[in-house]
Amino acid sequence: MLDDxxxxxxxxxEQAPAxxxxxxxxxxxxxEEKQEETAPAAEEESEExxxxxxxxxxxxxxxxxxxxxxxxxxxxxxxxxxxxVAETAHDDFDWSAxxxxxxxxxxxxxxxxxxxxxxxxxxxxxxxxxxxxxxAISDGDVVLDIGFKSDGLVPTSEFRDxxxxxxxDQIDVYVEQQEDxxxxxxxxxxxxxxxxxxxxxxxxxxxxxxxxxxxxxKTKGGLIVDCSGLETFLPGSQIDIKPIIDYDSYVGKTMxxxxxxxxxxxxxxxxxxxxLIESDLAEQREAIIASLEKGQVLEGLVKNITDFxxxxxxxxxxxxxxxxxxxxxxxxxxxxVLSLNQKINVVVLDFDENKKRISLGLKQxxxxxxxxxxxxxxxxxxxxxxxxxxxDYGAFLEIQPGVEGLIHVSEVSWSNQPINARxxxxxxxxxxxxxxxxxxxxxxxxxxxxxxxxxxxSEIENNFPEGSRHTGEVKNLTPYGVFVELEEGIGxxxxxxxxxxxxxxxxxxEFTKVGENxxxxxxxxxxxxxxxxxxxxxxxxxxxxxxxxxxPVGSYHEGTIVRRDDRGAxxxxxxxxxxxxxxxxIRKEDGQLAEVDETLTVKVIEFNRxxxxxxxxxxxxxxxxxxxxxxxxxxxxxxxRKQTRQAVKKQQSTVEKSTLGDLDVFSQLKDQLEDNDxxxxxxDDDK
Length: 687
What we know:
There is one protein chain. The protein has about 675 residues and is of the alpha+beta class. It contains eleven helices and 30 strands. Helix 10 (about 620-655) packs antiparallel against helix 11 (about 660-685).
């Protein structure tokens, strides 16, 4: 079948002889006229000799008729222009002979045939996935027929996953371009695989379908899975229902997954293998929970151990075994009793069908230790155990697993000295104790350590009579006193005011330290309350009996400031005595306050023997000095005036009658002396 280009070529060839004919000479034209006369006969012969080609298309006949009419018109024009035509040897050539094997079509036939041809082709759009048939395989390309007007080429490198590819196989490909710059159909199998893979992932996410993938590598927190060419993330928690430690063992494995999360923008997804396992176990879990009963004994596999308990796999459903339900005795961690993958029998304590929670117990399979406790364990008996728990009020001693007793802080020592249980006791430390009380019904028992020895307070008057002197160890310091232990279980307190006769301490730590030995005197015994009142200063004679004579009120002494605050200062006086000076009484002559370690002269302004208090003042001392100085100046002036009067009288008695002028001089001198006397008297009165 000839296409439009071939038809145009043939028509061009037909027109070429006509143009050449117009350019022939008159002789040739005459020859053509003879041929025209014989033309009808020749055409008839042609029709007779071509009976086998009778079914020629009508379009070709019409073209021939049109050509014949055109030739006749041309001949008439030529006859009018050139009446004489020269004859040539080629005038009888049939110029339509080249169309003997072709067919001519009308425009309508041509459109109809084109439409029929296009209907045989597949409608292909760019950026879509279509099916392609392998027609040929070369070294570098695979030829695919997708039913389009041309075949497409895909590099063989995109078929590495199908080494058995052969002609005739159907392959999904992605149409990138219908025609490139060379008019070639551009296809891609790699993009088709990725799009199909993403469609499968989205379908799995939306509809819960299962996809397959191969674990290709390990990454932080999980694994990387290749799902049909698209990499996805498998978190470590989604690999299996039990915790996975060795991720490397999964690399290279092909597994089934469900998509649990997708990101459309970056075409990323999170898959889960655990979801498949859980869905498979869902029916089994429902059946197990439906058949559960409190008190039912089940076999479980320890799958995980935490600080608060252990999780057990009961055959498709998990249960929690709390640490308090593992053993009747106290344990600090479940790993002390259980280990991973250990099979144990447990009892169902409680379960919640809605929340799918099951509480299990292990110790409940054994009788309570209090129920089988020996009858020999009774009040007054001595038991041995280890410390399993320590509280502020005491410690719990476990005499056998599940049987504990409390050692209260008051039962640790006969001494009344406060005991810090957390400092005194240590976990797992062993002690002997005496049972004070026991209640088998309430499963309680109180123990005592101090009752293992004799009560030293029973003979306190004989061993530590009042007024006796002893040496003890400082055990504790408080803001109000010092606690001293004289012997095991016997101790007392020295009040801070009984540490020294002369010094006042703001805290006992200024006088002694814990662990030091100190001499004391027994001041008072309170046997009922088990208290001793102790003193340290009483070991020496009371110096205040003599201080009253040494530091009378109004006496002056040298003192050194040892402490100072907003209220005043403590002044160290001779003989180790400490006095107090109010803040305004330590102001110096220049108006500044005296500093610590500065030595001043002070005046005793108050002395209280009973309260053992002495007040001193540097300001009063300065006032006394100023007053004495003024008195001395006054005495000197009075003596000077006395001498002047005596001199005047002596002069008056030795001098005879003076002139009036002399008398005036003496009169002025007398008035001046009298004025001076009045001024001095007035000044003294003001002072």
